[in-house]
Amino acid sequence: MSTQPPPLPAWVASQKQSSFARQAANACAAAPLILVGLSFCWSTLVQNHRDASGRPLALIIGALGCFIVLVGAVLGLLAIIFARRGERGWVIGRASIGFGITALLLVIAIPNFVRARRNAIANREAFQSVTATANDLRRQTTVSLKKHDLQSVDLSKFEQSLDRAAETTSGDTSAMIKATRAYFQRVQALQLAYEKASAELRSARILVVSNLVERGEIRPREAVVQKFLASNNDLKAFVGQNAVNYRKEFVSLNVPREQTEASFAAFQKGSADQVPVILEIRGADDRIGRGMLGILGLLDSQWGQWHWDGEKGRVLFENQAVLQQYNSYLAEIKQAGREQMAAQNRLALVMNQKKIPSL
After folding, report:
1. Biggest alpha carbon distance in the chain?
2. Bridge-partner residues for 315, per DSSP?
3. d(CA 163, CA 166)
4. Which end of the chain is more exposed for a tag (fewer CB within 10 A), N or C?
5. Are 348 and 219 contained in the same domain?
6. What tens digit of pLDDT does each residue of 61-83 get?
7. pLDDT value of residue 196
8. By residue range, what is the domain housing residue 112?
9. Looking at the structure, do residues 117 and 200 belong to the same domain, yes or no?
10. How far apart are CA 205 and CA 180, in angstroms?
């Protein structure tokens, strides 16, 4: 009597020998489904990691996805090769499903990848263009500060650079540039109003008394000074709340928090040491304007009790106390002017040490 176990049925032996082909075919069919799940996880991670950690995560997930596609394809081919005659149809069908879904995903993914790559290149080029133009503007402003002639600063090139960048970028990058452009436009509007008021102040020759022949001519001069002070105060108030105003533009355009904080940190780093000096310059303008109003007030209140001495080239008041007050206003204006020039020189040194980093 034989003590050996009975032989396995033929179909059991065949199934055991072909288990690898079946499992490989199943793995080939499952690979694209795993890839879909991985893509969903990738999109979630991208939404939650918009900072510097997003790029390494995207690279890791992309490499893992490529590995899954490659393994699925290899297993599908091995399944077809090692499949037995009786199961070849089932194995080929299951592997074909995996190949088909994978091919469909690749057809969808490749154009998206190419488009994303194109957008990334466009975004980077736009940032580089804006950065280069901003650094040129910084150098131009530094030279103008040293010459004490800010009228020569040309802001149009930087504005045009921001406009082009906003048009050629997309997504969060476009929103960031649009927010920066909106902030710059507000600064530019205040700056242009200030420059216009300053030009009117210079052309009005406020403190020239030799041509002041009627008392009614004092009021228009006071109006010019008041307009200058108002524009200067508007600019001063905006600069004083510089960081708040910058962040506000990003919030209004719904720029993601991570990008907003990163841009805000870079903005603060670049402007923190400039703001106090700019406020000092604006404060000097305020002192100059108020000194002018003080002189005009004296000329108005003392009308008929002063005259212009052409030989001595100065105003003579009948009341010596008023004359001392008049001279005090003149001294304050001159002192404020000297301090303003010194502050402009310091600002030029600060700006000369700064360079906007390329992104």
Report:
1. 149
2. 308
3. 5
4. N
5. yes
6. 667 767 777 777 777 777 777 77
7. 93
8. 17-122
9. no
10. 38
Query: CB within 8 A of 191, min separation 6: which ones?
Result: 155, 235
Within a domain: 188: no
Q: Which residues of 129-152 are buried (b: 16+ CB within 10 A; e: fewer)?
A: ebbebbeebbebbbebbeeeeeee
- What is the sign of the dihedral through the CA atoms of 131, 194, 239 and 178? negative
Residue 265 has pLDDT above 80, yes or no: yes
Q: Is 90 exceeded by the pLDDT of residue 132?
A: no
Q: How confident is the model at residue 13 (pLDDT cuts 50, 70, 90)?
A: very low
Specify whether 64 is located in the same domain as 212: no
Q: Which two tokens stand for residue 318?
A: 């009948």
Pair (198, 117) in one structural domain:
no
- Whether 36 is in a domain gets the answer yes
Cα–Cα distance between 126 and 166 in angstroms, integer?
Answer: 8
Q: Take residue 90 and report the two structure tokens written for it.
A: 């089932």
Per-residue pLDDT band at 2 (split at 50, 70, 90): very low
In a domain, 208, yes or no: yes
Domain termination residue (choose one: 104, 122, 140) = 122
Arithmetic mean of pLDDT, 296-313: 91
Beta strand pairing call for 306-309 and 314-317: antiparallel
110 and 237 in a common domain: no
Does residue 117 sit in the same domain as residue 217?
no
3-class DSSP state of 307: strand
- Report how many domains make up the chain: 2
- Please indicate, yes or no, if residue 44 is contained in any of the structural domains: yes
Asked if residue 264 lies in contact with residue 250, where contact means CB atoms within 8 angstroms, the answer is yes
Confidence of residue 263 (pLDDT cuts 50, 70, 90): confident
Q: What are phi and psi of 302, to 5 degrees?
A: -105, 25
Helix (DSSP H) and strand (DSSP E) numbers for the chain: 11, 2
Position 1 confidence tier, pLDDT thresholds 50, 70, 90:
very low
Sort 342 into a burial class: Cβ within 10 Å, 0-12 / 13-18 / 19+. middle
User: Which is nearest to 270 in space by CA: 152, 157, 173, 134?
Assistant: 134
Is residue 183 within 8 Å of residue 246, measured between CB atoms? yes
